[in-house]
Amino acid sequence: MKKLSSYILKYWYAYAAALICMIISVSLDMLWPQVTKSIIDDVIMGGKLNLLTKLLIMILIIGIGRCIFQYLKELIFDLVSSKIASDIRKNLFNHIQHLSVNFFDKTNTGELMSRVKDDVDKIWGALGFIGMLIIEIIIHVSMVLFFMFHLSPSLTIIPIIAMPLVAAVAIIMEKKLGKVYEDISEENAALNTVAQENLAGVRTVKAFAREKHEIQKFLSHNKRYYDLNMKQSKVFIKYYPIFQFVTKLLPLVVIVIGGFQVMDGKISLGTLGAFTEYSTNIVWPMEMLGWLSNDFASAIASSKKLKKIYAEQPMIKEPTEPVALNTVQGSIEFDHVSFRINDKNILSDISFVLPAGKTIGIMGATGTGKSSIINLMQRFYDATDGSIKLDGVNIKELSLQELRKSISLVMQDVFLFSDTINENVKMGKKNEVQQDDIHNAVFNAQAKDFIERMENQYETIIGERGVGLSGGQKQRISIARALAKKTPILVLDDSTSALDMETEHSIQKSLSDINSTKIIIAHRISAVKNADEIIILEEGKIVERGTHETLLNLQGYYYKTYMAQYGDFLEEKQIKESKKTMVDSLTLASKIITHTDRSKEASVCQ
Fold first, then answer.
1. Do 154 and 38 share a structural domain?
2. pLDDT digits (tens, 9 = 90+) for 66-100
3. Does residue 472 lie in a domain region?
């Protein structure tokens, strides 16, 4: 993570301009009590009425000048802090985007949303309005003490005693609030996660009548969040009255002690008036110190949260000198590939060679590692042992961009963005896909009919995650997206599971005409039976391999799956064939008997 100081230094000139405006504004503030002193001592007590007009004009100039420079100061701070917050959020999001898939396996979406939005906003405040006030307080208090000491060194002892007391209370409060803010930040992330998951899965919640359970779960986190905020408030209200008491008592003590000094002739009445104004001026920084400490502690806690994310490094590293493939042919080789996660074997000794333009089918029960082969091929994870090659080059030597741009993937879990159908289809190559390509891809994915029946057709806005579309419709748009990308390798991960057999057959026919290397993961025999090779996985190992006919003859897993899916059909077909054979046999027998009878009759007649 870039240090916050580096962001500030990037805009040092703007902060310098804001600081100059602040100094001028505070300096004008300091002149006001001096004008008050002159009005009391020179005009009221001294009778110099000719000075009154000049002093009143000076008050007007001070007021106008203060308004101008205060406005410029706040404008610059707001603009700069907004730019810095934008840079922080951009860099944070960029860092998150470059993290490997394993990071997202262990991190909730709600937590990341909280970091990108809420925590950056708190840092924004610290570098903007909060930071501005802290700097202004330092300058303001320094100037006030200087002018106070210039007016009356003895009276200046009073605020000097009060300020360390207030500072000590602020430090104690900040330490107590620091831990509370970390807990609030964590619970805020948890609350966001619960809300995000519930809203994203609202149909599942309603389907299982879990509304009451989800409400209770949300309320428990909401109660925890409420309790933590109440804990923060209790700390604040415990110490804030001390700030108020000191700041209200200070001017009163100054007037009382200063009044005795006026009566003793040690200071003038105008000096006491000016000193009282200065003491009032020092009150607001002391009152705001607690509030500023509160918000600043929150920003520090948020900064720590961001540092934890920046401490995460991508597990998948880009090669320092990547090999460039001029033209990707699409041949794939898995050479004794094994894959483990947290000491759990996912794949063991997987080997196969898939020449360019050929098709391989992968089957197996749920959890046997079928999708893991695709995850390794795209380098979402790296193989624990063995190597994976694309056109004879180890994929670890290729840039991630070149590798992933060479593969069109139709994932098992279809994700559609809340955008038009056009934008969803061409997201693979957003700036390259033409409208004709979209139409061809949609046609081959058997999605043309239902899209063109929609009111806005290709410009129809799809709801969040494709809400409003059936599972089959979402799968067909996802297939169209992959086809529009036009890559040398096409991967279908159980991509037709929600389709009827007729539509699946039409898509399979369209896919057979596409000249690309294909990897088809499926549970249906119909999806893989025409593949050049079919491999069967069991517990992460290849237990069967061969063509459709070869595997049927083995009478193993593939044969059992085939019989489970087509057994009734085959049995019905066999029964029909048996009935037909029986009928044919009876017909033949009847003909033979009839012929025999006729022969006997002819013989008798003779």
1. yes
2. 888 888 888 888 888 888 888 888 888 888 878 87
3. yes
Nearest to 31 by CA among 62, 60, 64, 73: 62
Q: What is the predicted pLDDT for the residue at 246?
A: 76
Q: From the CA atom positions of the chain, what is the Rg in Å?
A: 40
Strand pairing category for 533-538 and 359-364 = parallel
DSSP state of 367: T
Please check whether residues 297 and 340 belong to one and the same domain.
Answer: no
The structural domain count of the chain equals 3
Say if 401 falls within a structural domain: yes
Cα of 485 vs its chain's centroid, Å: 25
List, in order, residues 6 or more apart from 427 with CB less than 8 Å away.
417, 481
Q: What is the pLDDT of residues 177-200, one digit of tens each?
A: 767 777 777 777 777 777 766 766
How far is residue 578's CA from residue 572's CA, in Å, rounded to a whole number?
10
Nearest-angstrom CA–CA distance, 243 and 287: 6
- Residue 348 carries which DSSP code? E
Residue 277 falls inside a structural domain: yes
Q: What is the 3-state secondary structure (H, E, C) of 252-300?
A: HHHHHHHHHHHHCCCCCHHHHHHHHHHHHHCHHHHHHHHHHHHHHHHHH
What whole-number distance in Å separates Cα of residue 319 and Cα of residue 303?
Answer: 31
Q: For the chain, give the mean pLDDT.
A: 77
Query: Which CATH number belongs to the domain containing residue 66 in this structure?
Result: 1.20.1560.10
Cα–Cα distance between 280 and 48 in angstroms, integer?
27
Is residue 175 within 8 A of residue 300, CB to CB? The reply is no
Residue 61 domain flag: yes
Q: Are residues 392 and 269 in the same domain?
A: no
User: In terms of domains, do 144 and 285 share one?
Assistant: yes
Q: Are the C-beta atoms of residues 551 and 536 closer than 8 Å to each other?
A: yes
Tokens of 548: 């459709």
Render pLDDT for 468-485 as a digit per residue (tens, 0 to 9): 677 777 777 778 777 777
Distance CA 275, CA 148 (A): 6
Q: Tokens standing for 234?
A: 């209790």
The predicted-structure confidence for 248-306, as pLDDT tens digits, reads as follows 787 788 888 888 887 877 878 878 787 777 777 777 777 676 667 767 777 887 788 78
542: domain CATH number is 3.40.50.300
pTM of the model: 0.65
Domain, as residue range, for 214? 4-311
How far separated are the first and last CA of the chain, in Å rounded?
Answer: 117
Residue 315, burial from CB neighbour count under 10 angstroms (0-12, 13-18, 19+): middle
330, 367, 155, 176: which is closest to 259 by C-alpha? 155
What b-and-e string marks burial along 426-458, b requiring 16 or more CB atoms within 10 Å of the CB? bebbeeebeeebbbbbbebbbbbeebeeeeeeb
- Locate 33 and state its tokens: 């009590």
Question: Are 425 and 496 part of one and the same domain?
Answer: yes
- Alpha carbon 430 to its chain centroid, in Å, reads 21
CA angle 523, 524, 530 (to 5 degrees): 115
Strand, helix or coil for residue 533: strand
